[in-house]
C-alpha cells in the first residue's frame, strides 16, 4: 500500500481516478510483466516494423494454446505515436489533442503482415489454430475476413462475413465480439461490395443499442451508432453521386460554422467517437456523435433579429436550434418542450395542449427581442428564455444518438456583430462545462461572484469566476478543468486576469486537453500519463508571474499556431492541428489552490455585417432557382392598405359588404360560422404561360366546431383542364375533432368526365398567424405543364362553422 500511494502521488493523478491504479501497477511491476494489450502498446513506438510484427504475432497467437486473440483495447493515441508529453527548454511545441483509440491487435497484425509480405504466414497460423478442437470459430472468422479484405478478395470476404454474422449477433456473445467486429467493418468499408454485409452487422448492433437495458456497454453502443449512421450516409452519397439520376451536389467545407462537443473525462477515456457533420450548400447532416454535439456560428450576433430553419424531427433525428446559451425542441409526446444549454438539460416545459403532428421535419424560428429568445415550432410559440450575454452564438444541437439535419438556415432582421464578448458576464455560465464533472453555477465548484478586494486595487465590484479549493487529500493533484464550449477560432484572442498567490491561488490556461503551467514550481512536475497533457512556459519567463497580484494572460490563435502572453510578454508557442477542436479552458489543482479569474474577453477579426439572407452559407436556393425569371414577367401589384378598387377586383359571397372592412393594414374579414361559406377577392386578370402569385395575410384566427375547417387560401383556376390548385393556411377539426390542427395544405381539384377528384399532395403543421401564400407555375413543373393559360386568381376565405378573422396585406401577380 505504501508503494501504491507513492506512485500515485508522483504522477499527480486523483485517488478516485482509475488511472492511478494503472500507473502504480506499471511502476511497481514493470511494463514487461503486465500481460495485457495496454502493456504491450507501451513498448510500441520504440520498436521497428518487424519487431512490432513479432510482438503482435506473439500476442494474437499465444504460444502453447489454440487461442486467436481478437480483443479490443483502449489506448492513448499518443502512446502509439511515441509521444510522452512536452519537456522544458523548447520554445515551440506541438499540441497533440489527447485521444483514446480503440485498437484491435489482430487487425494491426494483419496490417503489419501486409506491409512486410507475411500475410501467408498469418493465414497459416489462423488455419492451424482453427483445426484445434477448442478453437473459437468467431475469432478465426474475424481474422480470416481481415486477411481477405487486406487482399481485396471481396467474394471471399462476403462469404466469411455471412458465416460470422449469426455468431456476432448472438445476444450472449455480442459484448465480447463487438469491438473486433467494428474494426473489421471499418476495414471493410473501403470495398463497396461489402457494404450490405456491414450494414447487416451494424443494424443488429443498432437494435441492441436501442433496447432498454442494452447488453452493449456505453462505449460500444456509441461506436455502433456512429458506424451505422456513417455508413448509411456514405451509402447514400455513393448512390446519389454515382447513380443514374444523381442530384446531390458537391460536399463542401463550411466556412462559417465550428463543430464541437461537450467532452468529459468519461467520454474521452471511454473512447467515444468524435462527432462528424457532413455539409452541402444549404444543408448540414450529422453522421457520427460523441456526446452533446454542437455547431456554432462563427461570429457573435446581438440585437433584435430572427433565425429560421427547417430541421429534422423525430425517429433518432432530433435536432435543436439555439441562441444565447439555450436550445429547445419538442418531446415525443408533443406535450413537452425539452430544453437546455451546452453542459446539460433544464426542466421540461409542459404545454397546455399538444403540438400538431410533427413529421420528418419542422420549421423552427427563433425570435430574439429585448434580451429574450422565443422559440416557435411550425409557427407556435413554445419557449421563451433570457439570453446569456456571455453566449451570443447561434447554435445547432444534437445528442450523440441522433443523426439529424438542418437546411435553409437564415439569420434575418437587424443583427449586429459585437467587437468582443465577456465570457463570464452571466453568473449562469451556460456556455461552460467541466471536464471532470464538477458542478457549475451559483454556489457551485465553479461560480461567478463579487468577492472582497484581494489587493487593494479597487476591484472588489468586478465579477470574478472562482474555482473552489476542495478534494479529499491535499497533495493528490486533483485536476479541475472548466472549458468554454465554443472553440477558439483563427485570428481570435482570449484575454483575462487571474489572481496568483504562491501556494494558495493559481490557475493555468488550457487549449483542448493541453494545459500550460504558469507556475514555475510546476515545471519539474510533468506527468507522462493521464487525461491531460502539461506544458511549461519558457524557462526565462518564470519571473514574470507577480505574486499576490492580479496578472494578465492573453492567448492568440493565428492559423495553426497558438501563442501565450503573460503580463505583456510572449512566454509560449505551440503548433496546433486546425482540424481539431480547440476549446479554451481554465485549469487548477483543486486540492491545493483556489482559481480566481476576471475580465475573460473573447475578441476576433470578425466581419461587422452578416451576408444577406439568401447569401448565407446554410441558405437553400431551391425555390430561388425554381422561380428564376420572375423579374422579367409583367407584374400586377396591389396594396390592400390603399383600398379595394372594384374596377380591378370582383367580390364573391352573399352580402360580402357586411363582412369586409377597410383598415389601415389592409382588408379585414370576419364572419360567423355556419354551413360551407366562401368569400373571395379576385383580380380582373387573365394571363398565359408561367406565373408567380403571392398574397400576404396577417391576424389569422379561427374557432370551428367538430368536423369543421376554417382557412385563408390562395386558388388558381385552370378552366381548360377543369382544375383548381389551392394552397391553404387552415385550422381544421376534421380528423382531430377534440383539439383541431393548425396546418398548411396544398390541394388539386379536377373534374374528369363529370366526376370531381381530390388530391392533397402536401401537408405540414403550421400555426403562424401571418405570412405569405405563393403559387408558382413553370413549364417544367408537372402540376402545370399541360395548362398554358388560366382565367382567374382568387384569394378566398372559406369556413364551415363558428367565427374566424382574416386580414389581407398585398397581392402580387406576375405572368
Assembly state (oligomeric): single chain
Overall number of strands: 46
Low-confidence parts lasting 5 or more residues at pLDDT below 50?
1-22, 28-35, 82-98, 239-250, 780-815
The CATH topology annotation of the largest domain reads as Jelly Rolls
- CATH class descriptor of the largest domain: Mainly Beta
On the 0 to 100 scale, the average pLDDT is 81
The total domain count is 4
Helix and strand content put the structural class at alpha+beta
Question: Which short descriptors sum up this protein?
Answer:
815 residues, alpha+beta, Jelly Rolls, 4 domains, nine-stranded mixed β-sheet, seven-stranded antiparallel β-sheet, 14 helices, 46 strands, 20% helix, 36% strand, globular, disordered N terminus, disordered C terminus
